[in-house]
Design a protein that fits this description.
By secondary structure, the protein is α+β, with helices and mostly antiparallel strands. It has one domain. The protein has helices at about 10-60, 100-105, 160-165, 170, 175-180, 220-225, 255-260, and strands at about 75, 80, 140, 205-210, 235-245, 250-255. The strands form two sheets. The chain has a four-stranded antiparallel β-sheet. The protein has a two-stranded antiparallel sheet with strand order 1-2. It is globular and about 85 Å long.
Amino acid sequence: MVRRTKGFTLIELLVVIAIIAILAAILFPVFARAREAARKTTCLSNLKQIGTASAMYVQDFDETYPWLMQDGRNNDDATGLSRNMASGAVQLNGVRGLFMEYAFNPYVKNYGLWGCPTLRPDPVVLGTDNLPLNEYGSYGYAYGGVGRGCLTGFSPRPTPLELFLRYAPVLDPRFSYVTATGCDAQSFFIAGQPMARISTPTDAIVAFCNSYGAHAAVTDADVIPTAFGGTGLNATGATLAVMSDGHAKYKTGGFVDLVRMMLVPL
């Protein structure tokens, strides 16, 4: 006598597959949010350590923050020299290592610290001195140009912070306080400033995560207005920053909200 093994019918298999698909649709976003929450925690921890490194630097260099570029767009990765920066009273062009990964290296020996797990860093390129030639990390420094200038005074290759500052008069009416200073970069950004100049250390940003959207699961272009090359969706974004007093925080909001976080008078 031959015994037949009872199997699943096609309908039963389809029902099981449908149930699995429904559970996946419910659980995957939950897992994604949990993963991003863990990444955000790591990013905050990285920024706090960068804040500590900057404080140690300031103690060693006459209580003054260094002149450093915001990100790597003004760096020659082959030589490690700065280029297309503002010119004037401060010499910022042709300087070796004008970025945090180089300047704060004596205080931060862990290259991995410079990488936000959400954004991920570029590969580090080391020079013959075994120090980085490129600004490979995920974090931006609070540099927004040199001197005054509303709708003028731009660097040869301005960074986003400088663009926000210079365009403040037409960006949003809420930036009238920026216009009142003549759009003076040194009234809002710690680069090159002595500690004594900073009257609001709880709000004066030292470094920040270089994205407007990644931590909110959208692209930067979805947050940025069309005038700055965005898609026009005006999505809610998010970023993280460490302040001069050493505390780090997470901020969500629209584009103008995030820019206002950057443009707080010193």
